[in-house]
Amino acid sequence: MRVEKSFCRLCFGFCGMDVTIGDDGRVQSVRGDHANPVTQGYACVKGLDAPEALYGDTRIMRPLKRVGDKHVPIGIEQALDEIAAKMKTIVAEDGAQSLAFFRGTGTFGSNVAIFSWPNLAEAIGGQRFSTMTIDQSAKWVTQDRLGTWPAGKQPFLGSDVYLFAGSNPLVSVFSWDMPSQNPQKKLKQARAAGMKLIVVDPRKTEMAQFADIHLQIYPGEDAAVAAGLIHVVLASGWEDKAFCEAHVAGVEALRREVAPFTPEVVAQRAGIAAADLIAAARLFAVESRRGSVSTGTGVDMAAFPNLAEHLYQALGVICGRFLRAGEALPNPGVLVARQPPHEGAIGPARGFEKAPRSRVRGAVRLMGESATPTLAEEILTPGKGRVRGLLISGANPASAIPDSRKVVEAFRALDLLVVVEPFHSETTRLADYVLPPKFLYEHADLTFGLEMSNLEIPYTCYTPPLVDPPEGSELVDEGYVAWALAKRMGVTLSYFGVDLDMDRPPSDDDFLAILASRGNVSYDEIKRTAVGGKVFDGLPQVRVLPPLEDRGRFEVMPDDVAAELRSFADTRGAAPTLAADGDFPLRMIARRIREVSNTSCRTFKSARERAPYNPICAHPDDLARSGLREGDECWVVSDNGRIPAIAKGDATLKPGVVSMTHGYGWLVGEDFDYRDKGSSISLLISLDRDCEQLQAMPRMSGVPVRIAAR
Ligand SMILES: Nc1nc2c(c(=O)[nH]1)N[C@H]1C(S)=C(S)[C@@H](COP(=O)(O)OP(=O)(O)OC[C@H]3O[C@@H](n4cnc5c(=O)[nH]c(N)nc54)[C@H](O)[C@@H]3O)O[C@H]1N2
Ligand SMILES: Nc1nc2c(c(=O)[nH]1)N[C@H]1C(S)=C(S)[C@@H](COP(=O)(O)OP(=O)(O)OC[C@H]3O[C@@H](n4cnc5c(=O)[nH]c(N)nc54)[C@H](O)[C@@H]3O)O[C@H]1N2
Ligand code: SF4
Ligand SMILES: [Mo]
Fold this sequence. Notes:
Blueprint: E1 2-7, E2 16-21, E3 27-32, H1 45-48, H2 50-55, E4 64-67, E5 70-73, H3 76-94, E6 99-103, H4 111-124, E7 127-130, H5 137-146, E8 161-165, H6 169-172, H7 183-192, E9 196-200, E10 213-215, H8 222-236, H9 241-247, E11 248-249, H10 251-258, H11 263-270, H12 274-285, E12 293-295, H13 297-301, H14 305-318, H15 351-354, H16 375-380, E13 389-393, H17 397-400, H18 404-412, E14 416-420, H19 426-430, E15 433-435, E16 445-446, H20 448-452, E17 459-460, E18 462-463, H21 478-489, E19 494-495, E20 498-499, H22 508-515, H23 523-529, E21 534-535, E22 554-555, H24 559-570, H25 574-579, E23 586-590, H26 605-610, E24 616-618, H27 620-625, E25 633-638, E26 641-649, E27 657-660, H28 674-677, E28 703-709
Parallel strand pairs: 6-7, 6-13, 8-9, 8-12, 9-10, 11-22, 13-14, 14-15, 23-27, 24-26
Antiparallel strand pairs: 1-2, 2-3, 4-5, 4-15, 16-18, 17-21, 19-20, 23-28, 24-27, 25-26, 25-28
The structure holds ligand MGD (2 copies), iron/sulfur cluster and molybdenum atom.
The site of iron/sulfur cluster has 11 residues, from helix 1.
């Protein structure tokens, strides 16, 4: 028996782990590594269930091929030959755009997978899809319309205020702005150092428990809240005038357009007190000097996501909450050496206006990606460019994309469905080929993802592979799959701009060496010194340079955003809708829980014991109004379908708002026992109605529903 250091990759937390390996070469147990400098012993139930994840009976151990309605084992090279032959036929008949490559959150567990899959798509000329466009695509739209600041926002560490809207890092262990490794500890430290916290969320979440001001709004009213905050700031003269003068265009248009959003109007729409909105604006803009706005999925999944996201970020902009010339970046970068940026904005690129639109619904492409909400239609709509082949890595879109009835129908209509996936899932059930990868402690990796998001210190962690794949298995290296398909298609796979040698199969180590080659520390040194995690304190600081003469400007109120704000102002808002006793008087929001990650980890022992199904949570008064008691079996009904559930009272929810965890259920059309598998809230959401115009993002939060006795 031996104990080795590594890190968990089941979510973005990348918690440092002590892994106990038995004499049989299998992982016996894991526990949080207290010596890890950033995660300091933190680990959740999913991560601690690693032996179950690796050796449980839902893991796939050999490549599979569909024959009739059964999956049978197939050798990997044979599978790759057959897949490539089919891909070639599709390309020859209909062009490369008829092949789609989909990347999901599972690839966050492998740097090789997350970057090689889109590169395979690029090399072949296929369409790229990912979960970003059913998650936080509004962030990409906002960058494109507002502009960016290369030096970054004022970092979380050292700030005296932060506003979090629709983000609950204490459970999701994810934030774009707050270091979310061991999130409770990070938050408590910041609070102890004097940080004030404003939380905008329909539920009194784990995060809201720490808030100085909690704006408990109706879902879908973020645009009103953000417009109202801006209104108060501008009306009171609390904006950073020098910053606006130097770096912002459109402040007067912004002032004019948010004028209707007085505190009283916002209070009425969002169901909050006007005084709380004013207090939040004051706390953010004048009582604090440093700190910014951070949004999560709550904002970007509700109605008007592009508008809401734009306005929240614009609030940070008019208050000038960015790093300025002379200030040091929080992290000079270990795996990527940061170059000193100039103070100043890069004006809106509006790339989505230039990229060719999708042939269905005219949806825009963002960052070169097609919009996932249109994937089913791309498959089902006849014509040139129809998607006929779908190659998926680390995703379970048959369950995770809303309106799964339509998605499953589309997947059944494909000529080729390939899934790279360690576990049986709704999507593998439909696949022609399933290629199971090495997973978790079976492969080497780096904590690169942290450096790209919210890590504010020069930390990195390397793990070698700790255990061999289980005996008798045939598991693939994810990079090898991408390389081997590229080779068979006669194209060159690249990785971070480096063309791979197409005569010699690359190892994971080759990929990781390329990844680390742009860093401040050599890959060899990282491998030698950063097992278990290391903070590279000695790296020289990178400071922001003075502004350039011809710098760009943020655009806080371009015409299209103004038009959206006006049409938003015309909507009745959630509050009147809730008051009216319509068919669907309640608004459903998502609810992440520690036991599962989207559709993943449901089958682990921890989830089966602690959260085998997903109850519908409602304020006790709403339960009573629906004629239900705690534990009653019921239906949750929307205009798109109905699903079984069990009622659970929860006073942390705003009355009128209900919540249910996504990712549960089983393949559409199959019988299942709700108490054993839960049910899928995807079925309640429409891909056709209530979508954001540009990128077809469906309304996934604030979904109108009712609860009815069963
Ligand atoms: N345990 C676990 N961890 C996860 C995941 C998981 O499923 N389980 N998923 C991972 C993924 S893919 C992602 S993208 C991240 C997401 O990470 P987060 O964005 O932090 O996701 P949530 O924890 O769902 O927090 C969203 C919050 O938005 C609130 N909300 C809902 N509707 C609205 C609204 O209209 N307005 C506002 N202001 N708030 C609203 C919800 O009540 C909730 O508290 O988490 C990741 N981490
Ligand atoms: N109604 C509703 N729907 C939602 C959401 C919501 O809040 N409400 N959240 C949405 C969000 S934010 C997202 S990001 C999507 C997520 O959509 P998906 O990414 O499709 O869902 P996951 O369950 O995260 O799927 C990850 C898959 O990767 C597999 N996997 C794990 N590790 C590895 C690995 O190392 N390699 C490979 N190849 N595979 C691996 C897992 O077994 C799992 O099947 O769901 C979205 N769906
Ligand atoms: S799943 Fe849990 S243990 Fe693993 S990285 Fe995420 S928070 Fe950490
Ligand atoms: Mo996500």
